[in-house]
Write the structure tokens for this entry.
Amino acid sequence: MTAILFPGQGSQYIGMSEDFYKNYFNSKLVFEEVEDSTSVDVKKIIFKDSLNQLNLTNYTQLCVFTASYSFFRRILCFSVI
């Protein structure tokens, strides 16, 4: 059995998952899917955060999820579940 654990609120930081976004197509798709579904510019919040939104719970949860799911999508490229 395999378990994959993801961090929660409190682990967020500006720039998290930006390297995955820039380098992996599947990770980039995650950001697009989340932004299309929520109308929230998570890239702007995670990568720049000029308005200090990353520490507001309603954005933190979405951004941590997006970053974690982008990692997960990359992991799926290497394994069959």
Summary: The chain has one domain: 18-76. Residues 27 and 71 are 7 Å apart (CA to CA).
